[in-house]
């Protein structure tokens, strides 16, 4: 009988313990560029049909965070009817960017060689790799897809075949581990033996 290797147990624990950690819980500690490069290298190891590697990332850190915070807040204001505009949401939009150690814009490129859903699925796999690697490094994160992503084309210099599908917020944190809320596996799996 085969027994799980230490690598398997480590990976299983990382997967089981990964959680969404939001900017309000970030400590303000900088994430150095070398660490971000290592996380993105993990992201780009994701599976991809026909090796289209459809993901692209725009990393905002240090002064770039202020540019992104202003852009997102201004887009919220510009695209929200005056009667629905909330000053608190405008301020929160800026604040969660500024509380982060880095924010990564997630971009999918559509090659035309594959159905768009496959390119999106590959990009989501890349984000999951990023998330797991960040979790293993003690860095919290979460994937957000605000309405502003539909208006980021010029700001992110998107090509005609590209789409921003969200932002990944990252930051060191002191949040205690918490148990996942998942339905029992038996509700999700049917065995045919």
Features:
193 residues, alpha+beta, NADH Oxidase, 5 helices, globular, oxidoreductase, flavoprotein
Topology:
Elements (H helix, E strand, L loop, with lengths): L5 H12 L15 H11 L11 E6 L2 H16 L8 H12 L3 E8 L6 H21 L2 E6 L17 E11 L21
Helix pairs in contact: 2-5, 3-4
Please provide a brief summary of the model.
The protein has five helices and four strands.
Q: Can you describe this structure?
A:
Keywords: Flavoprotein, FMN, NAD, NADP, Oxidoreductase. It holds the Pfam family Nitroreductase. Its EC number is 1.-.-.-. Belongs to the nitroreductase family. This is Putative NAD(P)H nitroreductase. Helix 2 crosses helix 5 (116-136) and helix 3 runs antiparallel to helix 4. This protein has 5 helices and 4 strands, in the order ααβααβαββ. With 193 residues, the chain is of the alpha+beta class. The chain is 37% helix and 16% strand. The radius of gyration is 18 Å and the shape is globular. Strands 1-2-4-3 form a 4-stranded antiparallel sheet. The chain has a single domain (22-174), classed as NADH Oxidase.
